[in-house]
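Case 358 in the screening queue. Each case pairs one protein sequence with one candidate compound; here the compound is PMV. For every case the pipeline is the same: read the inputs, emit a complex structure as tokens, and attach any notable structural observations.

Predict complex for case 358.
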Amino acid sequence: NSVENGSFTWSSPSNIALVKYWGKKKDQIPENPSISFTLDHCKTTTILSFSKKENQDSFSFEVFLDGEKKDDFKPKIETFFKRIEVYLPFLKTYHFKIETSNTFPHSSGIASSASGMSALALCLMSMEKELVLNSALSKVEGGKENFEDFFTQKASFLARLGSGSACRSLEGDLVVWGEHENVVGSSDLFGVKYPFEVHQNFKNYHDTILLVDKGEKQVSSTVGHNLMHGHAFAGERFKQARTNLSHLINVLKEGDLDAFIALVESEALTLHAMMMTSMPYFILMKPNTLEIINKIWAYRQESGSKVCFTLDAGANVHVLYPEKESGKVLEFIKNELVGYCQNGHYISDKIGFGAKLI
Ligand code: PMV
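Case 358 output:
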């Protein structure tokens, strides 16, 4: 092809799962379907610059985070490139410079893999698009238009191969990943925009992320997913996630905030229960995680608020609440919860609408 060099920039958000993905098969195929809210503020911006090279024997790239060279990111990206090479055959014909920055601190305990891998996948797809449009396909009738349809789906497919949950970050405000009989078009291979009606109660939902522990993850998600192989409760858990997703479809349609709370908190605690009951076992919560959960429960009891929590595979707490309560709940968070955060750090976020080409 004739494209010598160029660059693309994408910004892509993080996401927070309501029904969790925990356990995978070969090739990043999830054991159960999951659904997430796309975030708005927490995102990664990636500039991918490329130039043609002579030697086509190996991948060639450099990675920068906030302008600083990051050689320790290279193995992850090398693995990603190996996995996606068959789907993007041009990877070895270019040298890449990958410049990334996050809106959240790198050492915040917030995984940047979902936003980072989706941003990179989108940059690579923009590149593929340019190469394709320079080639014969652009001359085929409908070639260009068909490519547009395919773009997001393939980008999500590639992002999945970087980090499973990354395939849920491209669109918003809700994304389903994993085949489910009630969700038309759902797939194990890529995320799809949630196709059903969502009640006003769930529009513009807020997520304030309390940074309880900003250290490196105690258990990498790769290790965590693998712990589900041969796990005594795995089969039941995968079934439960399917049932919960079916149930959530009605909850989102009806606007039933109490049912939402019960489902989302149970999912978070089940994720942690899976880690506590695997071999080896892990407790990923910290004492302050539990303090925060108890405060949220007490506040809900006292005030009738519909605030709830969810957790990732770590100690930080995502506090979820409806837009119409946002003023009051933020006061509660500042007065009663921020004290449990490491150095008082938290991030105010809300539901967002996906990645953007810059
Ligand atoms: O995308 P991974 O492999 O880092 O897995 C993430 C898993 C959880 O964040 C714990 C749950 C989820 O569905 O996002």
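Case 358 observations:
- The two ends are 25 Å apart (CA to CA).
- The domain at 5-178 is CATH 3.30.230.10 (Ribosomal Protein S5; domain 2).
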